[in-house]
Design brief:
Blueprint: E1 14-15, E2 24-25, H1 33-48, H2 53-60, H3 69-95, E3 106-110, E4 114-119, E5 126-131, E6 135-140, E7 144-149, H4 160-168, E8 174-178, H5 185-197
Antiparallel strand pairs: 1-5, 2-3, 3-4, 4-5, 6-7, 7-8
Length: 210
């Protein structure tokens, strides 16, 4: 599983570069760990539920040669263990030291080159800088934008099966930008247009008037 600080070549909060004077600036917002867990858990299981059938089928295989109700019990236990393990991966993200910046109360500044995540008073210059190539994709929900960070590059020489596991059972890490944090509706439309120019939102997401 990729850690948040391994994604997109990211790093921790540091002295920030200045955004463009024309940058889109937002009010402060905070994504709680509970809200993140709820959102990611639903997304993960929507994609991964077929994999829960694998331990169930493996547990039932011996019943072909030796029928017994015990194999059904074994299949259920293996499935429950898989569900618990996968769910623990999701909740574990919120407990890691590297993940704490994601759940700080922060404001955003966006221009054509970068996305700044500012924590605390702006005069302190404490911010995380992300360039747009660190963002894998975006999603527009009814009340917010989600910007997904790119997964980190697996170590070289990793066995094929471990590489498959890392890619298949990765945990999404994203930035959550509610519509309400934009200072004006025109700022939100400009931001959406910026996401489309960066090919992070599909064209059918709706054209913003700018």
């Amino acid at each position: 599983m990729n850690q948040p600080n391994q994604r997109g070549g990211g790093g921790g909060f540091r002295q920030a570069q200045q955004a463009s004077p024309l940058a889109i600036r937002t009010k402060k917002s905070q994504l709680t760990t509970d809200a993140y867990t709820k959102m990611v858990m639903g997304e993960v299981w929507k994609k991964d539920w077929p994999y829960a059938l694998i331990p169930f089928v493996l547990g039932l295989l011996p019943a072909i040669f030796l029928p017994s109700w015990w194999w059904i019990a074994l299949a259920m236990v293996l499935t429950i263990l898989f569900v618990l393990f996968r769910s623990a991966q999701v909740t574990g993200i919120t407990q890691m030291e590297q993940s704490k910046p994601l759940f700080e109360r922060m404001a955003f500044e966006m221009d054509n080159k970068q996305l700044l995540l500012r924590v605390g008073p702006e005069k302190e210059g404490k911010a995380m800088q992300l360039t747009w190539d660190m963002i894998d994709r975006a999603r527009r929900d009814p009340d917010a934008y989600l910007l997904y960070l790119k997964p980190g590059t697996p170590p070289t020489g990793l066995a094929a099966w471990r590489l498959w596991l890392a890619r298949t059972f990765d945990v999404p890490v994203f930035l959550h930008l509610p519509f309400k944090i934009f200072n004006a509706d025109n700022d939100r439309k400009l931001f959406e247009a910026l996401l489309r120019r960066k090919n992070l939102l599909p064209a059918e997401a709706g054209a913003a008037t700018v």
